[in-house]
């Protein structure tokens, strides 16, 4: 089951986020921020969790790419699946639901930055209609000093004006 994320989900959401940080394949973040900082940096709508029974198996949210008005329909995806739930289809269902919800909210472009060593994430995004639009070589160093590339993946809404376009 997929449902909107609630503030009281933060304990489970932050645990899954920390698991992603620990892989060193999901994000350049090295620490999980407090809820107030995390909440302020993500769009309030289009926050989803996927459940395995009563347990949160993963989460997905959007962030603004640029605060300028002309980019109001462009958002960046963050998606994380808990370690014990990976490879079971939760990511696909969660990202598909996030894409549908984002279109209903008026977003016309979703993008995701995928670290070079995260092949599973690239496959997931491709399966959900994202395409590779660029590779940023040696864009950042990991915590061991190794240069890393990132891949920019993008999904465009099929309609020029998604259903919720006038609400943005």
UniProtKB/TrEMBL annotation:
Molecular function via GO: acyltransferase activity, transferring groups other than amino-acyl groups
Keywords: Acyltransferase, Transferase
InterPro entries xref list: Acyl_CoA_acyltransferase, GNAT_dom
SUPFAM superfamilies per UniProt: Acyl-CoA N-acyltransferases (Nat)
Transmembrane segments: none
All copies of domain N-acetyltransferase, residue ranges: 1-158
Protein name: Phosphinothricin N-acetyltransferase
Species: Faecalibacterium gallinarum
Lineage of the species this protein comes from: Bacteria, Bacillati, Bacillota, Clostridia, Eubacteriales
């Amino acid at each position: 089951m997929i449902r909107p994320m609630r503030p009281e989900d933060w304990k489970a959401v932050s645990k899954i986020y920390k698991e992603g940080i620990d892989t060193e394949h999901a994000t350049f973040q090295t620490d999980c921020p407090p809820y107030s900082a995390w909440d302020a940096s993500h769009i309030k709508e289009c926050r989803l969790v996927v459940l395995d029974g009563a347990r949160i198996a993963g989460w997905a949210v959007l962030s603004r790419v640029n605060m300028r008005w002309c980019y109001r329909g462009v958002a960046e995806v963050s998606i994380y699946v808990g370690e014990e739930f990976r490879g079971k289809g939760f990511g696909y269902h969660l990202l598909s639901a996030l894409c549908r919800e984002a279109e209903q909210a008026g977003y016309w472009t979703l993008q995701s930055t995928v670290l070079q060593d995260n092949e599973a994430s690239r496959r997931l995004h491709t399966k959900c209609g994202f395409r590779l639009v660029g590779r940023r070589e040696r864009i950042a160093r990991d915590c061991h000093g190794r240069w890393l590339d990132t891949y920019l993946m993008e999904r465009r809404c099929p309609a020029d004006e998604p259903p919720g376009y006038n609400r943005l």
